[in-house]
Amino acid sequence: MRTRARLTITLPHAMLHQIDLAGERLGITNRSHSIEHLIGKSLQPKISTAVVLAGGRTLKQLAPFKKIHGQYLFVIMVNQLKKYGFERIVVCLPKERHGQFLQTFGNGEGLGVRIEYSVEVRQLGTAGAIKTAGDLLKNEPFLVLHGDILTNMNLHDFIEFHTSEDMPATIAVKPRVGERKYGQIFMQGNKIVKFLKVGTDQGISIINTGIYLINPLVLNMVAYGKLALLEKDIFPVLADRDKLSAFIFQGLWFDLSNPEQLEAAEKRWMS
Q: Lesser CB count within 10 Å: N end or C end of the chain?
């Protein structure tokens, strides 16, 4: 339970009016609660860079170009990221995909963001791809999204949780009964302590959603130019060191590389 301290402050009437209006828009009727919400939001750490992993070599099945209600998945992702204040998107992709992305989405000007591309001449895995993009990443935590994921996760909550946990990395996880193909995890409190292999029928069905918050020091664990996977080479090591947190969410989540989930997304997703 959070402890609270009583505080007396004096504010101009005009500012109080603005606070009350903001509270009304948020559905908050208590002025103290409105002030607390607005101060909390202003103090929330800002993470402005997202990394989208668009690797793989099958052009025909390129997930970011799949459409939901006539809109590219990548555009939906960008709009979701903008909603939560992300201004820069670094796309990690193989060289044969670069032209298609650049032609379709450009530098992001038409989408209201800045898109930069980190191009691999050969496959390096999820961790290796991010290591290659290191020069494009600021010295601050960044969000990582697999390029085939569609979700309505509240990223503000995710960032707040990651910051409060003060861990090198946080994985967004989701209860998902019967989804052994995504692998499962064991947790103690908010910490991930063990990863189960894909297909293992043990434990509670809590899956890795392919959405991460990572502090830049984690990249020191990855050798430049070497094949490495976050999910196999980095996260299990952090878990063994008790340095990996899990953020559980219950919202919509779809893996659009799966035809059945693509169909489900078409039915359930609201733009």
A: N
Contacts of 144 (CB under 8 A, 6+ apart): 50, 51, 53, 126, 130, 211, 212, 213, 214, 230
Report the distance separating Cα 94 and Cα 219, nearest Å: 20
* pLDDT of the residue at 130: 96
Alpha carbon distances (Å) from 102 to 98, 107, 112, 148, 171:
6, 7, 15, 18, 29
| Residues 27, 81 within the same domain | no
Q: At what angle do helices 95-105 and 73-83 cross, to 10 degrees?
A: 70
136 plus 199 within the same structural domain: yes
Q: Clarify whether residues 232 and 134 are in a common domain.
A: yes
* Alpha helices (runs of H) in 106-244, residue ranges in sequence order: 125-132, 155-165, 235-240
Model pLDDT, residue 60: 43
Give me the domain span that covers residue 88: 49-268
d(CA 216, CA 48): 14
Give the C-alpha separation, 175 to 182, whole Å.
11
Same domain as 90, residue 39 = no
pTM of the predicted model, to two decimals? 0.80
User: Residue 108 sits in a domain of what CATH number?
Assistant: 3.90.550.10
Q: What are the mean pLDDT values of the chain's consecutive 10-residue runs (271 residues total)? A: 73 86 82 78 75 73 85 95 93 92 94 95 92 90 94 93 93 74 68 68 72 95 94 93 92 89 89 58
Q: Identify whether residues 97 and 114 lie together within a single domain.
A: yes
pLDDT value at position 127? 96
Q: In what order do the strands lie in the sheet with 169-175?
A: 114-120, 88-94, 49-53, 142-146, 206-214, 169-175, 244-248, 191-196, 184-188
Cα 150–chain centre separation: 11
Whether residue 30 is contained in a domain is answered as yes
User: Which DSSP category does 171 fall into?
Assistant: E
- What is residue 206's predicted lDDT score, i.e. its pLDDT? 81
